[in-house]
Amino acid sequence: MRQAVIGGALLVIGAVCVALGLLPLSDLAVLADRVVPVLAFVLGLTVVAELAADAGVFDRLADLAALVGRGRTAGLWAAVVALAVLCTVFLSIDTTAVLLTPIVITLARRVGLPPMPFALTTVWLANTASLLLPVSNLTNLLAVDRMGLDGPIPFAGLMVWAALAGVVIPCTVLLVVFRGRLFGRYTPVSVRRMTDPVFFWSASAVLVALVIALTAGVAVWVAALAAAAVLVVVAAFRAPAELRPARVPWSTLVFAAGLFVVVETLHTTGVTEPLVRALTGGTDAGSLLVLGGAGAAAANAIDNLPAYLVLEPAAGHEALRSAALLVGVNAGCLVTPWASLATLLWHARLSSEGVQLSWGRYMALGCVVAPLTVVAGVLVLGA
């Protein structure tokens, strides 16, 4: 609700800026042409992920992770890492932080393990593993066209080593911090029965088809909306009670739309020009580290999405500079609670599950893992 209120206020401010001529209608039209497909993708993917969760797809994957672990805590944790990475890469950061987190917590409790190491794994990897594909993070979708890359495969080719650093370093820190809890044994549990096999297999098939479409270069918003339409039709017959207006991410859409308009106004009026000029540079390691560091600092100050939008002109249309900025805003947003919307949503799910983590401890751990991940991610971009 708070996000929707802020987004509504931003839209009002944007409307006033348009009325006063601070943001010309021609610039607004160009902005709309760029961001409407992105918002359509967010809408479609959110509906697909929510209905797939209702169908029990993520529950089943979590149970399979418990079997893969073979009674060893480290094995279960490794399976959760793989699940979180795959979920983030193909279904976006929010799916992992919001939908996978409570499922992983429930899984840990079912096998008698402390949930915190697994919960922290999901939120860190939701952010840091979201570097590999355009669909993994909203910032990536905004950046991919400016980078001059033709589709998801070239994007992945540029980002693969940074994405790998975004997985390896947080996991290494987690292993050190929770070494006393991640090595031991647990009693495996059986895979739960499907409550509605038709809904489950339909949702699974839609997810597989969506992943194939997104990696094959189909327009992401077309693929997401088509998948959502198919799954809504299935749910109308198999689980009509799940088709609620709350399934539509109204708050996120309003917030993002308002943010786009206001930041575009700041660019148009030249307010951000001094900052952009100060960060403009080349593609040497030092310049890339400065830009990535600025992205991380801005993300922890004002949230990673507005941080990317404000600093985007400093990256220009240079692929390596845009990549360094993405590393900063995506992998560096692990310190403050508001640095990533997914982190705030994750903490709300954590609290609703009765798992307590103080923001003080979260920030202290973030001060360790964020700089290491950003520096490593930027330095391996040239690899």
From TrEMBL:
Residues 11-315 form the Citrate transporter-like domain. Signal peptide: none annotated. It is a multi-pass membrane protein. The chain crosses the membrane at residues 6-23, 35-56, 76-105, 117-135, 155-178, 198-216, 222-241, 248-268, 288-311, 323-347, 359-381. Pfam families: CitMHS (PF03600). This is Arsenic transporter. The lineage of its organism: Bacteria, Bacillati, Actinomycetota, Actinomycetes, Micrococcales. Belongs to the ArsB family. It is found in: Cell membrane. The keyword rRNA-binding does not apply. Keywords: Arsenical resistance, Cell membrane, Membrane, Transmembrane, Transmembrane helix, Transport.
